[in-house]
Amino acid sequence: MQNAPPEFLEMLQNAGLAEPGEAPFFEELTGGVASDIWRADLASGPVCVKRALAKLKVPQDWRAPVERNTYEAAWFETVAAISPGVVPRLLAQDRDAGMFAMEYLDPDNFKSWKDELLEGRADPGFAAEVGRNLGLIHSATKGDEKIREQFPTDDIFHAIRLSPYLEATATKHPALKVPLLDLVRVTGATHQALVHGDVSPKNILIGPDGPVFLDAECAWYGDPAFDLAFCLNHMLLKCLAAPAATGAFLDCFSALAKAYLETVQNEVNEEWAIEIETRTARLLPGLFLARIDGKSPVEYIDGEFDKDAVRLAARTLLMDPVKQLSDVRRSWAEQLRRGPAR
Q: What count of other Cβ atoms lies within 10 Å of the Cβ of residue 324?
């Protein structure tokens, strides 16, 4: 048994998941920077317990309110009612302690999408499923005032997304300060649908029945373009991590965007799809640059040549914005051709 903080066992016992006197085996799960996450092997089977951290596990001083754990649980509950199976089942919650327990998903059956992508295994069909499910979540929650009232998280979202990504990047790139801070303003002022806030491949599992979304600590009733841009950003960045699969990553970019926009168009209307695409195309280069020069840079891009390629492509699109995601893809593909990643 690893030395899990005693509060984890206490939470499981208070929730009735662990029997009195039961001493489950605990294993700390790694990979995240914002929470303590432990697997607990109970008599009834394994569960996962998560507690938000006040200070994130990154070199910079990055702090965030721990009540985001409550909103993450609420995001799971809301989405489970929309698309059953795309989130883990919530088993118990202790709001005062900032903790909840959820079902444990066996990695033998639920593979990390990030790991697959870094190995160069990029499946446009799966990317399309991610886009379709994201579009369903946004469409089902569009304009829902009751859901909006459940997620009064503007300040949290600013603290853990807009500030460390876009504002921090603006301080390193004074020449881009105006467009970057304008993205902060527009994104922060847009409240249209329930947003996950961290739709990254590391937070998506390849399950037997399709994608499963994890880690909704940034849950917010806000701009759906943020989710789309955040995920598409990784399809571009992965081109530098596994250059041989560049074509497949760009195909994933197009498949995800197409499936998302078609879903939104079918579920809501074409006008909303166009509006979201326009904001996504403007926001994406800001996030692209932020994953190099913000507070949370991707760990798999460490060479200055590759970083400069991102900086140049992002700068071009920030200074001369486009309205279609196909133009973002084209601009990055041209940058890769001008300067090979390796």
A: 14
CATH number at 111-338: 3.90.1200.10
Domain boundaries, the chain: 6-103, 111-338
Answer whether 27's CB lies under 8 Å from 38's CB. Answer: yes
Please, are residues 297 and 291 in contact by the beta-carbon 8 Å criterion? yes
Q: What sign does the dihedral 40-46-52-53 (CA atoms) show?
A: positive
Structure tokens of 102? 């959820």
Q: Read out DSSP for 5-61? A: -HHHHHHHHHTTSS-TT---EEEE--S-SSEEEEEEEETTEEEEEEEE-SB-SSSS-
Q: Residue 39 CB: number of other CB atoms within 10 A?
A: 17
Residues near 220 by beta carbon (within 8 Å), at least 6 away in sequence: 71, 151, 153, 154, 156, 157, 161, 194, 195, 197
What is the CATH class of 6-103? alpha beta
In angstroms, rounded to a whole number, what is the distance separating the alpha carbons of residues 129 and 116?
16
For 75-126, write each residue's pLDDT tens digit. Answer: 999 999 999 899 999 999 888 888 899 999 999 999 999 999 999 999 999 9
Strand-pair category, 204-207 with 111-112: antiparallel
Six-digit token pair at 143?
């304009």
Can you tell me whether residue 112 is helix, strand or coil? strand
Q: Is 133 exposed, middle or buried (0-12, 13-18, 19+ CB in 10 A)?
A: buried
Sign of CA dihedral 168, 240, 280, 158: negative
Distance separating alpha carbons of residues 18 and 7, to the nearest angstrom: 13
pLDDT by residue (tens digit) across 313-338? Answer: 999 999 999 999 999 999 999 999 98
Residue 62 is encoded by which pair of tokens? 């990055």
Rounded CA gap, 61 and 142, in Å?
A: 35
Helix ranges (H only) for 48-195 are: 68-82, 113-118, 124-141, 145-150, 154-157, 168-172, 177-189
